[in-house]
Design goal:
alpha+beta; 4-stranded mixed sheet; about 15% helix
Length: about 325
């Protein structure tokens, strides 16, 4: 186990005990804002989303019995909003789309097959980021399709309940509690807050799953659904949120690149200057692997064997 992994596991175990000395409180992010729907429409129309809070949809299968493609596709529902703008410009609680197009995610086929497979499940809690578009299906007319740019999969089978927010590390470190160290960004809204704790126990996630989720906060972020509560500590009171479900972004594979095979990244064919260093040999044995880390980044796993080799690299 890497040292960073061990630290995250310890941190996750502390978070799972966050329910101690807490109380339910009013959730200022729960209500739909007066301008939320209009802002979401603008983002879906191509307006820049600098905070990354917009164009998120919950995807569930269409179980109606009629001929495809008019049935058998998917329902898409704008998260945290009462209505969804459909392909024909009308508004409904949720909109039908005949297919999911995941080309815009850049994911390999194996990953997109997994996402679509879960979206077909009767208990689907797949989240996609993207937009609803129109597509001609010949004699069946023009129907909606969903063009995704990101895919997020749930961590457990627990039903999601509460406000959907994306969590990002706030870069704040404290010597006492509660510590306002996490930004929470309400999806499909401009509302946001800073919280001190997350209670993952509601989701039924394991310590390993929680550790991976906590690590995601330092990368692409973590999406959770839950309710507001207040946590108490030496520094007073702090905002917190339960996590009835948590989602992590589906990421592509990692690639080894560079002239000497010393670079680990999420881009295939990365090049570098061909200046050989003895420590590069350390990446070409069984002591490490180029893989996704708990923060979502592609990096060489920092095993004890790799660190020892880097400290005393072999002589060429």
């Amino acid at each position: 186990m890497s040292r960073n992994r061990a630290l995250l596991l310890g941190f996750a175990s502390l978070l799972s005990l966050a329910a101690c000395a807490t109380e339910v409180s009013t959730d200022e992010l729960a209500a739909e804002g007066a301008n939320d729907a209009a802002a979401a429409d603008a983002a879906e129309g191509g307006k820049a989303d600098s905070t990354g809070q917009y164009t998120y949809f919950l995807v569930t299968p269409d179980m109606r019995r009629c001929a495809s493609p008019k049935c058998g596709g998917f329902w898409v529902d704008r998260i945290n909003l009462g209505t969804t703008k459909c392909a024909d410009g009308t508004y409904a609680e949720k909109c039908y789309v005949a297919e999911l197009n995941l080309d815009g995610t850049g994911l390999p086929t194996a990953s997109t097959d997994t996402v679509i497979g879960q979206a077909h499940s009767a208990t689907s809690q797949v989240l996609l980021r993207g937009t609803i578009a129109k597509k001609s299906f010949g004699a069946n007319g023009t129907l909606g399709v969903f063009k995704a740019t990101e895919a997020w999969l749930p961590t457990t089978d627990a039903p999601a309940d509460g406000v959907f927010v994306k969590l990002k590390d706030a870069g704040v470190r404290c010597i006492t509690t509660p510590c306002p160290s996490t930004h929470e960004l309400k999806l499909n809204s401009s509302s946001k807050a800073v919280i001190a704790d997350v209670d993952f126990s509601w989701s039924g996630a394991t310590d390993e799953q929680i550790a991976a989720a906590v690590g995601a906060e330092f990368g692409d972020g973590l999406i959770i659904a839950g309710d507001r509560y207040t946590v108490h500590g030496q520094a007073g009171n702090g905002k917190a949120r339960t996590a009835t479900q948590l989602w992590t972004k589906v990421l592509g594979p990692c690639f080894v690149g560079g002239c000497s095979g010393q670079i680990c990244s999420d881009e295939e064919g990365v090049i570098s200057t061909c200046i050989y260093k003895p420590e590069y040999a350390c990446y070409h044995n069984d002591s490490t692997a180029c893989e996704r880390q708990t923060n979502g980044a592609c990096e060489w796993t920092q095993t004890d064997a790799l660190l020892a080799c880097l400290a005393d690299p072999p002589t060429p």
